Amino acid sequence: MLHSVLLLLAAPAAEPVQWAQMTIERRVIIRVPMARKGKAPPRADPHARDDWDEKKGPRCIALRSIRSASIIVREGVDLLLADQHRYRARLERGCDSAGFYSGFYVEPHDDGSICSGRDELQARNGMTCQIDNFRRLVPADGDD
Q1: Which candidate, 53, 66, 67, 90, has a CA 20 to 30 Å from the CA of 101?
Q2: Which top-level group of life is the source organism from (predicted)?
């Protein structure tokens, strides 16, 4: 032990040690593809009849269950889930779904869900729109 202390005292004074901090951030973005033409209409037609009735929907949807999306109405994006359910993500006021025709991205949270009032859809063209609410879609009755 004494030998080590003597070596430290005899060593020349070195440059002061500089410490640095490095932060590594990881950003995960999930791409949601648009439905193929055989499964859903590719574009919203303002004169087309919407064959879906909207019901009260959940606040959040599990990201792992979303398989594709389609544009049927001007103010929302329809999400097609693995269990064949369909939900409409109603977008914030003034946000047009036309920008999402080529698909969109979602940044996942720790809970693995996409939630209304918290998350936003990011179009490939750079546009972002917050999700106002989710509506559950059920086939419309043909009697109307």
Answers
A1: 53
A2: Bacteria
Please state the length of the chain. 144
Distance of alpha carbon 85 from alpha carbon 111, whole angstroms: 21
Backbone dihedral region for residue 4 (phi beyond 0: left; psi -120 to 50: alpha; all else: beta):
alpha
d(CA 74, CA 69): 14
Among residues 72, 65, 5, which one has the least CA distance to residue 32?
Answer: 65
For residue 61 the two structure tokens come to 């949807």
CA dihedral 116, 47, 50, 107 (to 10 degrees): -30
What pLDDT, in 10s, does the model give residues 42-99?
444 444 456 788 999 999 999 999 998 888 888 899 999 999 899 999 999 888 888 8
Q: Which of 100, 88, 28, 30 has the alpha carbon at shortest distance from 61?
A: 88
